[in-house]
Structures are given as structure tokens and as C-alpha cells.
Amino acid sequence: MTTATEILVDLVSDTATRPTPAMRQAMCHAPVGDEQRGEDPTVNALTRQVAALLGKEAAILLPSGTMCNQISLAVHCRMGDEIICAANSHILSSEGAGAAVFAHSTVRGIGSPSGLFDQDELAEAIRPSNTKAPRSRLVCVEQTCNRGGGTVWPLATLHAIAETAQANGLRLHMDGARLLNACVASGVPASRYAEPCDSVWLDLSKGLGCPVGAVLAGSRHFIEEANRWKHRMGGAMRQAGILAAAGLYALEHHVDRLAHDHANARKFAAAIAGLPGIRLLFDDTPTNLVFFDISASGLNTRELSQTLMKKGVRIGVESPHVMRAVFHLDIDEQGTDLAIDTLRLALPAEAGGIRQ
Ligand SMILES: Cc1ncc(COP(=O)(O)O)c(C=O)c1O
Fold it and tell me: Is the shortest distance between the CB of 95 and ligand 1 below 6 Å?
């Protein structure tokens, strides 16, 4: 009988975090009610707190970030509209063409390895208004840009694209799966990043370490409409205060510590950059994501991933040549060192490692 190797260091995603004992305690003791009727006091406390954090009139708790994105697209767009975002964004590549399914809209991607784009690139992507073209309706940005290596949108760039969007009658949506990572890395408050956006959300289940949930914020009118979609999609819950309690706990205890994840990611990137056969995809490591290409090692990512797994280290496979390591609450400095050493030893000797 074979037994699965225990995963000691799980860098596959920051969704791999498990609730801490203190978070579980907070969940245990949460006062709860019927969320669907607006009667759950803990959910109401969380949505009030996130609305204030993001400087918006109202907010709702949803089961996932994907649902935050899809509901936002559905509220902002009408049949035949077009959404503009970075070509490598989650909305375009990882949400099962939900824009077509729920918002009945097409998505136009701006090619940008970093996930950022500027005013001129946006202006070029906005279609001229005529009966043949889809109507450009919504711009989406990811803060931070996941497949851009965790890049942070600078405030000035955000304001510039918001100005172009507004001048052309488009709305601006922010996918804030890692918005608080951006805030911790830059020192800019979340409300300032959210200010030029018509809708914005943050994920509870990534760096914040909660088991489930994301909170979407916007104007009172936007959130009323979003609530209709939440119900329609089956996202309305009952005693969801148990989940909201984890969110409240995380906002108090797990935000400043994101700086440790960024430091571990930087340490990992700096160490592996020196390994022959490995090439970092991005020059900087601004937050908690490290992408690297292993083609020069002569291995493919599936083989390398299997070798690492046998030693208890899991790193995500993005493509046959590219891997992604994500740093989070459950990875300490020791785990980071173990991942570096395991990767070094897994590389073929001629590429700088030791064949096992
Ligand atoms: C940038 C980005 N947006 C949205 C999502 C979706 O979030 P969820 O997993 O909560 O649906 C993810 C998840 O990895 C993400 O990285």
C-alpha cells in the first residue's frame, strides 16, 4: 500500500491557508442569524466594516471572489457590451467565460505581461461608438495582478485610466483578490485604491487566511442590484456569521502580517534566481507571488513538481515551463528555506542541483 507524502510546504496558492485556532474560536462564538433576510449580526458587522475600509456606501458577503467578479459584470453590463481588462486577468482566463454566460458580454484583453495598462492602451481598446461594434462598457483591473507577478497598480495610473473610462462612459471595476497585499506593500490605504472604482471587492480566503468568502462593495444602488444577482445565483446564505466572524478576525489580526509573506517571497525569489536553469519571469517581487521558468533546466514543470511533491513541497504548475510559488499565512521562514533547498536539490546536477 502506498501512502501519500505529507505536504510540508504548500506554495500552490494563498488559498491553501487553514483557519488558525484563534480564528476557529472566533467562528465558534459568532452571533448568527438568517443572512438571507439581513438578520445575521456578524455578517452585517463585516459588511459595514469592509464598506468603511473601502470608502463605499455598502457591501455584501459572497461565497467567493469569482462570484464578486461575475455579479459585478452582470450588474454593470447589458447584452452585447464589451469588458476591457488585461489579457492575463482572472476574469478573462479563469472564470469559465462567465462574462458571456451571466453578463452576455464579450471580453477584450489588453496584452500586458505585468497586468497593468495605461491611459493610451485603454483609449486604444475602447471601441468607437457605432452600430457594428460591441459597446465598450466596463474596465476591470486586478489589484494586485496575479499573473503579472503580484504587481501593484500605482494610484496615479489607476486615476488616469479611471479618467479615460469616465470620459468614454465606461465604469471601472477592481478585482481585489489581493488588494490588501497591495496596501501593505505600498502603504496606500484600501479606500484610496477603491476610490476611482465603481465596484471593488476583497477576498477573505486568500492572504487573510479565512476558509470561505469575499466582500463586494460599491454604491448603495450597485449593492442592491448585486444582491438580486447574489440570490439569483444561489449565493444567499443562512447562518453565515460563522464565516463573517473569520473575516472580522482576519481584518484585525492578519493584515499587517502580509508583510512577512512578501518578505518570504522576496527571499525565495532572490535565492532561486541564482540557480542555473531557473529564470524569474519578473524582475521584482512586490508582493507574495513568484513566477519562474525552468526550461533551461531540461525538466518540464510536471516532472519537477512530482519530484518536489515527493519531498513535501508543492509548487503550482502554470504551463509546461512556468511554475508559481505563492507565500501566505501557513508558510514561515523555515518553510521558505525548505522550499529553496528542496528546489535546489531537485534540479539536475548540470543545471546546478544534485541528482537524487
Ligand atoms: C486575481 C484573482 N481574482 C479572482 C480570483 C477568484 O477568487 P475565488 O477563488 O475566491 O473565487 C482569484 C483566485 O485565485 C484571483 O487570483
Answer: no
